């Protein structure tokens, strides 16, 4: 008791379990790096993996310009491995050991006790690890050097022993016939080390694309380390109710279980369902119903169920489509299963069904032929996908089976925003897998569309803003005239009350514009998707842009927050297009709590002005007139001075690309050598390009 009193509890930390990267997260343990291979300078040239064996092979570049690098030793190793001739089969094309290969081995056979933890704002988020791999240097290049050395010795000995060639040509051959292999011999052969090595060697390598630590896609994937519903309620995966905890401590005996009446394996009564944990109840209901509004789900779970706990659990097994919850594909098609119609693996089926769900987030109607053409699946599988969540209409296509749930969308905007971010990630994966065209990404207009889609397009947002402004414009004009009349009446009353006092009046024009130079950066450009030339501006924070009603302190806070975001973004990625910057800003907004100052409305012009104020410059790249890029993709901004060793190289590259949008590598190499006074080789030029244009690489 005395020890417990001397050791009080200082802080309690909430623990959440994240499942987005379940069975996908690996921990790589790198060896201690030499001084010539720091974390900032290491560049991953290539990466490949054997998934069944959980074997990874990475090829990393060595900083040969580091003062700790021994150049003579590197040249000697390259000479021993490749010899004097250099061709495509050479290991070191630069005649210098400028790269190192690392192979992995499993550090632990059972990793169920390990997890990756992220601590943020007083919360600890845990993600279970699927594997722990130790990376160790591979010295296969020494074997290659020994093989070449033996070949040279054999060639030298072959010239001296030319007299014995006639005798060596005649050799005795013994012919043997193999006996039929018994079952015991076959089992011994299968369990032998040579057979296992042969099977491992037969598995093909899968080449991977490596994204650096500062890449925007890496930052997007790191968001999955946080629990999706961590702000709603306590995590029921880690906290059990008293009855559930008692059941875990004292499970029912086998005799009591045998006394229960037998029922079909696919039938579960509501009484039996409510004895299960809440997460299992929701999973079973969604798996059987497949599409359900949130109100119906609450009614099936019974009275007294916490809605916030239901919201947290339903996000683990379902996705939001048009305000309704649709069961996830991996719940219907678990791992290591296949299609009953075509035998296609579950992974392919999940991608195809995700594409159908994503199409319904864009529109209420989906055409079956379009789904089959994109997914390349058999008609039976596509029909199953559509029957899960839609109804066939003659001569129209397939319509989503439930109406748009506006009540849920209005009550839970944070859930809607989080689901939109998840759909953005799913859309990016589908674009990469299916090579989707623009016609697949833009929603088709329907004449008889009865509800609004979940993802509102820019054109629809503009039309809604115009209608809203036209509706309120007359009322605002009346209030303005009323205020002016009151001001005039006050002035006249003041003059009549004090007739002996004469006040010098300045001529004031009614049409004189108000000085809003302090708020000019907040009110110009694109505001919530509305351009200035597309009708009256939409209100920001309840006031029209430029009316001068935004408090000065709020403006300063918004400017400070925006400047901090722009500065940190360009310090990670030195060159960005306006389109990529807006995408990163939307991701930043999604991670902020509701009511943050940045939600007051940030226009495109304010974002661009802030970029220029933080020391960046716009690079006028001469793109061809027939380019298919959007206007935001044609605007390129770069951080001119970052304070690192690559400032001069980066400025030379930006000057080159301001004159031509496509430049050959040898031209870049010659220009860098002339301007910087350094003789850079191919690997050094690649490193400069990757460091300077990491976001566009």
TrEMBL record:
Keywords noted in UniProt: Coiled coil
BP GO annotations: tRNA transcription by RNA polymerase III
The DNA-directed RNA polymerase III subunit RPC5 C-terminal domain, residue ranges: 444-695
Superkingdom classification of source: Eukaryota
Keyword Coiled coil: yes
Residue ranges the record marks as coiled coil: 466-493
InterPro entries cross-referenced by the UniProt entry: RNA_pol_III_Rpc5, RPC5_C
A GO cellular-component term linked to this record: RNA polymerase III complex
Pfam families: RPC5, RPC5_C
Biased composition (Basic and acidic residues): 146-155
Region (Disordered): 146-169
Official protein name in the record: RPC5 polymerase
Species of the source: Leptocoma aspasia
């Amino acid at each position: 008791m005395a020890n417990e009193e001397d050791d009080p509890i200082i802080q309690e930390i909430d623990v959440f379990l994240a499942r987005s990267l379940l069975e996908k997260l690996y921990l790589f343990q790198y060896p201690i790096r030499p001084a010539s291979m720091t974390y900032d300078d290491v560049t991953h040239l290539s990466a490949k993996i054997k998934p069944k064996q959980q074997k990874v092979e990475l090829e990393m570049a060595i900083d040969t310009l580091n003062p700790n690098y021994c150049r003579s030793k590197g040249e000697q190793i390259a000479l021993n491995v490749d010899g004097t001739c250099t061709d495509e089969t050479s290991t070191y094309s630069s005649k210098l050991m400028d790269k190192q290969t690392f192979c992995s081995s499993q550090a632990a056979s059972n990793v169920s006790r390990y997890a990756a933890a992220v601590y943020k704002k007083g919360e600890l988020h845990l993600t279970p690890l699927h594997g722990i791999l130790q990376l160790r240097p591979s010295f296969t290049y020494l074997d290659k050097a020994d093989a070449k050395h033996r070949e040279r010795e054999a060639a030298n000995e072959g010239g001296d022993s030319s007299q014995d060639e006639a005798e060596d040509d005649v050799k005795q051959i013994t012919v043997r016939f193999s006996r039929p292999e018994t079952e015991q011999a076959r089992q011994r052969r299968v369990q032998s080390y040579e057979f296992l090595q042969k099977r491992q060697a037969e598995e093909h390598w899968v080449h991977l694309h490596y994204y650096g630590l500062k890449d925007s896609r890496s930052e997007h994937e790191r968001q999955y380390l946080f629990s999706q519903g961590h702000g709603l309620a306590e995590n029921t995966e880690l906290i059990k109710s008293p009855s559930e905890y008692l059941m875990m401590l004292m499970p029912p005996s086998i005799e009591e279980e045998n006394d229960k009446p037998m029922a079909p394996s696919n039938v579960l009564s509501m009484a039996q369902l409510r004895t299960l944990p809440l997460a299992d109840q929701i999973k079973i209901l969604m798996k059987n119903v497949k599409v359900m509004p949130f109100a119906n789900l609450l009614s099936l779970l019974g009275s007294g169920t916490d809605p916030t706990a239901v919201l947290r659990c339903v996000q683990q097994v379902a996705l939001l489509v048009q305000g309704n919850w649709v069961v996830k594909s991996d719940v219907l098609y678990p791992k290591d299963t296949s299609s009953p119609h075509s035998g296609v693996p579950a992974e392919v089926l999940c991608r195809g069904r995700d594409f159908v769900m994503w199409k319904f987030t864009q529109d209420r109607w989906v055409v079956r032929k379009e789904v089959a053409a994109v997914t390349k699946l058999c008609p039976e599988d596509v029909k199953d996908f559509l029957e899960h969540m839609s109804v066939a209409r003659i001569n129209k296509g397939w319509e989503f089976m439930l109406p748009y749930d506006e009540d849920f969308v209005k009550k839970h905007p944070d859930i809607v925003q989080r689901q939109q971010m998840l759909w953005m990630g799913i859309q990016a994966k589908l674009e990469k897998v299916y090579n989707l065209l623009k016609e697949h990404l833009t929603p088709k207009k329907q004449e008889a569309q009865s509800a609004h889609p979940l993802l509102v397009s820019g054109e629809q947002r503009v039309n809604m803003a115009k209608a809203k402004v036209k509706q309120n414009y007359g009322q605002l004009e009346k209030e303005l005239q009323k205020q002016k009349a009151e001001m005039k009446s006050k002035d006249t009353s003041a003059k009549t009350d004090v007739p002996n006092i004469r006040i010098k009046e300045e001529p004031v024009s009614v049409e004189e514009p108000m000085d809003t130079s302090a708020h000019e950066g907040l009110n110009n450009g694109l505001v919530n998707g509305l351009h200035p030339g597309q009708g009256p501006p939409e209100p920001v924070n309840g006031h029209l842009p430029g009316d001068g009603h935004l408090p000065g302190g709020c403006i300063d806070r918004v400017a400070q927050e925006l400047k901090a975001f722009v500065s940190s973004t360009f310090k990670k990625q030195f060159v960005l297009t306006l389109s990529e910057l807006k995408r990163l800003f939307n991701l930043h907004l999604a991670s902020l709590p509701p009511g943050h100052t940045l939600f007051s409305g940030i226009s495109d012009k304010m974002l661009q002005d802030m970029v220029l104020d933080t020391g960046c410059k716009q690079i006028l790249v001469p793109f061809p007139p027939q380019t298919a890029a959007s206007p935001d993709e044609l605007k390129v901004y770069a951080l001119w001075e970052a304070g690192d060793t690559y400032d001069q190289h980066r400025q030379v590259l930006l000057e080159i690309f301001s004159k031509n949008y496509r430049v050959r590598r040898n031209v870049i190499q010659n220009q860098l050598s002339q301007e910087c006074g350094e003789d850079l080789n191919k690997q050094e030029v690649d490193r400069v390009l990757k460091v300077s244009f990491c976001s566009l690489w």
